[in-house]
Amino acid sequence: MASVSSYISAYREIIKLGLPILVGQLGTIVVSFADNIMVGHYSTEALASASFVNNLFNVAIFCCVGFTYGLTPLAGALFGKGELRKIGAITRMALWINVLYTLLITAVMTVIYFNIDRMGQPAELMPLIKPYFLLVLVGMLPVAIFNVGAQWSYAINNTGMPMWIILCANLLNVAGNYMLIFGNFGMPELGLFGAGLSTLAARILCPLLIFGALLFARRFRPYRDGLLHGERRRGDRRLIWRTSMPVSLQMTFESGSFTAAAIMVGWLGTVPLAAFQVIVIVGMLGFTIYYGIGSAVSVKVSNECGLNSAAGMRRYAWAGYHLMIVMMTLASLIFVIGGRHIMTLFSNDPAVVALATSLIFPLVLYQLGDATQITFANALRGTSKVMPMLWIAFISYVIVGIPATYLFAFPLGMGTYGVILSFSASLFLAGALFLLSFLKVTHNLNISNHEQA
After folding, report:
1. 191-195, 263-267, 288-292, 373-377 — which is least confidently predicted?
2. Nearest to 364 by CA among 401, 329, 396, 405
3. What's the CA angle centered on 71, arms 226 and 449, to 5 degrees?
4. Whole-structure pTM over 0.85, yes or no?
5. Pick from 182, 202, 149: which is nearest to 31 by CA?
6. What is the 3-state secondary structure (H, E, C) of the chain?
């Protein structure tokens, strides 16, 4: 009964922390839905162009966002000990390191921009792809800065503030889309370029709001004092780098496998690329739900890690996975029951709708793998022992995932269906390996605690 009671308590705490993150991310996915619906109804070419650019930038943005995640276990462990001023100091260090890292990734993406004609995409899409690419490129730094602030906020168990900021930015994005894509309210009709402008404005707003709150809100004074005046602890820079880089590369490899898939789908033509974008956006509904729970798991595991409680770390990880299974089941039911109706929201092209609808089964199939790998990747991240994430992601997404995508799509002749089906192979493998690594970390901590006792 004590065990059941502890799990019920863990469920409540994870839901309390994860619900605002989930709501904020659902707001983001609603905006993505609205964005793609408007772009898709504007033209199939605009939707296909957005698919290529967004999937290409997923690698860069996830790389930068993943790097910000290294702050969470460090700040979360300090929060568990009540060392609030130190949280501000380490947040400042994380901010500078993340700005430099993001500028480096931005430079890499700039090189890609000047070689984009060589990537085998339909020539008629280039006039749409290039200007949209530049707008997304400019938005990378604001995304990274906001996520540093969001990880600080999550680590101190304040998940509500990022949620409200994201929702406000989403409202701005939707309004901008409505005005600039179609030229409503006297604004110019800019199509896909208009969607990019409104997204950029929303991304700039987010860091202004969250760091404005940190610098001026009275309740954040201990963190602000550390941010502005806290002493730099020896080894903080190396510690942040060590906890950030493996997570960044893990997310880079994962998103990179999806980007490689988008490039391969582009070889099949404009309609398959547009249908692939619809499936990716619909699949993000599941990912968004899992992300909220996973982030809460990471925070609670990091708090327990600060207390050297291996049992608490495992309890929150498994409680998160129980909740994740429920969420995965609900998401899958939505896809199965309402799949065709959802697809028609994004395009009025019958060929795109028909192809996207045929991809529902492989979409549902990989949901369990996605839920599993997100849960235990975040649990492992919460321990700050993140080096295994690097080799796990490389094996799962690069060594297994990308070849599987090519094999299913072309030699086996399954086309776009095979591309989506191949995602299950890498996600299930990654989930299993993240779980084993997390259990190993908590087992070693148990042994260390017994030796010290």
Report:
1. 288-292
2. 329
3. 100
4. no
5. 202
6. CHHHHHHHHHHHHHHHHHHHHHHHHHHHHHHHHHHHHHHHHHCHHHHHHHHHHHHHHHHHHHHHHHHHCCHHHHHHHHHHHCCHHHHHHHHHHHHHHHHHHHHHHHHHHHHHHCCHHHCCCCHHHHHHHHHHHHHHHHCHHHHHHHHHHHHHHHHCCCCHHHHHHHHHHHHHHHHHHHHHHHCCCCCCCCCHHHHHHHHHHHHHHHHHHHHHHHHHCHHHHHHHHHHHHCCCCCCHHHHHHHHHHHHHHHHHHHHHHHHHHHHHHHCCCHHHHHHHHHHHHHHHHHHHHHHHHHHHHHHHHHHHHHCCCHHHHHHHHHHHHHHHHHHHHHHHHHHHHHHHHHHHHHCCCHHHHHHHHCCHHHHHHCHHHHHHHHHHHHHHHHHCCCHHHHHHHHHHHHHHHHHHHHHHHCCCCCHHHHHHHHHHHHHHHHHHHHHHHHHHHHHHHHHHHHHHC
How far, in Å, CA of 406 to CA of 421, rounded? 11
CB 257 within 8 A of CB 402: yes
Q: Is 169 in contact with 24 (CB distance < 8 Å)?
A: no
Q: What integer pLDDT is reported at residue 453 of this predicted model?
A: 57
- Are the C-beta atoms of residues 419 and 405 closer than 8 Å to each other? yes
- Overall average pLDDT of the 82-86 stretch: 86
Beta carbons of 64 and 98 less than 8 angstroms apart: yes
pLDDT on residue 33: 65
Categorise residue 184: left if φ over 0, alpha if ψ from -120 to 50, beta otherwise. Answer: beta
Asked whether 55 and 282 are in contact (CB, 8 A), the reply is no
Is residue 273 within 8 A of residue 359, CB to CB? The reply is: no
Q: How many CB atoms lie within 10 A of CB 412?
A: 13
Position 191 confidence tier, pLDDT thresholds 50, 70, 90: confident
pLDDT for 2 equals 46
Among the listed residues 105, 201, 211, 203, the one whose alpha carbon sits nearest the alpha carbon of residue 151: 211
Choose among 197, 94, 213: nearest CA to 165.
213
Specify the higher pLDDT residue, 70 or 425: 425
Burial 48-81 (b: 16+ CB within 10 A, else e): bbbbbbbbbbbbbbbbbbbbbbbbbbbbbbbbbe
The predicted-structure confidence for 42-58, as pLDDT tens digits, reads as follows: 787 887 788 788 777 87
pLDDT over 90 for what percent of the chain? 29
